[in-house]
Design goal:
Number of domains: 3
Shape: globular
Radius of gyration: 23 Å
CATH class of the largest domain: Alpha Beta
CATH architecture of the largest domain: 2-Layer Sandwich
Structural class: alpha+beta
Number of helices: 17
Distance between the termini: 53 Å
Length: 376
Amino acid sequence: MPEYQVLTGLIGDIYDAILDPAQWNDVLARITEFVGGEAGGLLSKNSVSKLGNAHHHVGVDAHYMKLYLETYSKFDPMSTLPFFDVEQVVSTPDLMPYDEFCEGRFYQEWARPQGWVDAANAVLEKSMTSCAYLSVIRSEAQGMVDDEMRRRMALIVPHVRRAVLIGKAIDLRHAEASTFAGILEGFCVGVFLVDANARIVHANAAGHGILHAADFLRATGGRLVAADGQVDQTLREVFAAAGGGDAALDVKGIAVPLTASDGECYVAHVLPLTSGQRRRVGTAYTAAAAVFVRKAALETPAAPEVIAKSYRLTPTELRVLLAIVEVGGVPEVATALGVAESTVKTHLGRLFEKTGTSRQADLVKLVAGFASPLQG
């Protein structure tokens, strides 16, 4: 089957998983096969405890998954992943020097016994205390992450991210179409159900508020219209394509930027309702798509990311800095990271130079100074 057809079908299944999270494992299996990996997962990592959580995963033996959650998630290189941009595809060598990775406990005791050598990862969402990401692992036979894997991963990641974000706003696992409108009323984001001609068939309270303001979006002749002509044309094309289902929508972007008269930025996420499990909602309302409109706020960076950018630290230097704060002295950090003490000392010297400090205690104070005053 041509890549085009595989991709469009896969994108449709990704959005179906919003309505039925039980499909995520099957979808992950298809994503893993499409990008060229052996195992994959939707995971999150707490930047404070360093513990990881696998929300959905495929291709990992249950025994090794248990070991990961209980022990080895603390040692994987993902603690530096928030340092990278959302949706940016990064491999293990981007996170830390590969020779150090191979010397560490995570590789020696967890990855190597399974025959795994690398992984393609992308941040889906990050906050002050956690990072959610998609990861697809490569085996020795497949080799290191290459340009083709990065290209295919980049095609998939935006859709996975949008599905995750929309899924956080709406949980329809047990919702029937008859109660759909009631659910929408509880959202703080504006939600519109529209047909293929942009006619509004339902709007929640927040959506009516947006229309009442008649700023960047308004109702004209019963249709949803954007104030910006080019944006309006894009929305009309997306709605018309959504009327033909996921295949007709193809791989067009379904996140549309909007700008209010005061300069505030918003984003409209469009979810087709004419394919898969979403069809039952669309049929009940003769709707082709659901439009979720929210203010586009900058991602709140995790404190480690702010520190790294402030002092121009490499991912490895950041990893050593955080380990010093959490674990303690050089011997303890070397043991925790599974590297030689000389390696830790080398990175420590660079940390002193870049931060203008001379003691490990000063590094601890430096990190404490970046702590959010809202964290308890």
